[in-house]
Amino acid sequence: MDKEAGISNKAEEFIQMFKKGEEFTKEILRENEKLRFRVAQLEGAVERSGDETRTKLYEERIRLLELELSTIREKFSQVEEENKDFASKYIEVEEENNNLANLYVASYQLHSTLDFSEVLRIVVEIVINLIGAERFVVMLIDDKTNELVSVATEGLQASEAPRIRIGEGTIGKVTKDGESYFAEDLSAINKFNPLEPIVCIPLKIKEHVIGAIVIYKLLTQKAGFNNVDYELFNLLAGHAATAIFSSRLYTQSERKLTTIQGFLDLLKEKPKR
Question: Is the dihedral of CA 215, 220, 225, 227 positive or negative?
Answer without folding.
Answer: negative
